Amino acid sequence: MTVALTKGGNVSLSKQAPGLTAVRVGLGWRTEGTGCDPDASALLCDGSGKVLSEAHFVFFNNLRSPEGAVTLAAPPHDGSGDDARIDIDFGAVPAAVTKIVFPVSLYEAEERGQSFAQVAAAHIQVTATDGTPLARYDLHGAGGAETAMVFGELYRHGAEWKFRAVGQGYASGLAGIAQDYGVDVLRPEPAAPAPIAAPAPPAPAMPPTPPLPPEPAAFPPSGHATVPDPAAHPAPIGATDMTCFFDPSHGPGTTPVMWSPQWGVPRQITSCPGCAQRVQTTPPPYYTAPQQGYAQAGYPQQPAQPGYPQAAPAQQGYPQPEQPQQGRRFGTGALIGAGAAGLVGGALLNEAFDDDEPDVIVNNYYED
């Protein structure tokens, strides 16, 4: 007696027909007037869910698995409603094979603008070799934007062979199924890396930001920057989107810039086009945004005096550190708060960046 299954349901064929050594899997559909051309196939997979080898992918260009366990037969035309038939010899199935998957794909669906929404009355059924029906799954309303679909699968459960109704669709066609099951013969060629785009034109000046809290925010140390040679410093391939190095609120960092901090080794960063323009055209500290309530005088640089370190430019609204005595050498200090008396030594500022991406693991779950 045939067991009618719904999506995700399973049945033990070995219990349905004790002593069963072979079965016939029939797949059918209706596509009259649509121009759709479905193709049935079979994948012999190991315990990891990957195809055992490319020769164990049975389809219209490979009608038989190497050991003869799975054979794609000619369409029956016997009134059964099957449009494709696949014969399975359980005795010849390699011990490493844990399941046999049965996909159906639409030939050149993307070029023809077709999908399973145009396929009606799709089904998969399992019968014994003498024609005794064992299980059937009708894919009612399963069609949508999918161009390929796994109808069902046979799988081992201990010493038994069982059948599961799957009904999983793929919008990427047979190539998407091939990628999931590790078939290289249908995997699309990797696309060539896109050429590095030239730096975008300068963006309009950013509007003034709101006043900062009483305690001044810390900024990166000043330095000089230049636009790197794209050939010498290519943009990283496959990196995730990054925000502007100097201010994440500016949006994505799209322009590569070689940044040389006051203390540290020059390195490439990415910033918004506006910040990149300021890096190239404005003397340090180019990263400081205008602040309401404080005069922005452009931070004039003091003329250099040979033999002595140069003091940092004065900023209105904050007390200034005492000037070092001649003959003694000090590093540049950073003011931390109002009333600071000045720093005696230079502080080495190190910045650490972490571009690691979290691993993304996709699990396919199948019930026994």
UniProtKB/TrEMBL annotation:
Record field: compositional bias (Low complexity): 288-333
Region Disordered: start-end pairs:
283-333
Under Gene3D superfamilies, the record lists:
sav2460 like domains (2.60.60.30)
Species source reads Streptomyces catenulae
Family designation: Belongs to the CAPAB/TerDEXZ family.
TerD domain location: 1-181
Q: Which domain of life is it from?
A: Bacteria
As recorded in UniProt, coiled-coil segments are none
User: InterPro entries of this UniProt entry?
Assistant: Stress/Tellurium_Resist, TerD
* Name recorded for this polypeptide: TerD family protein
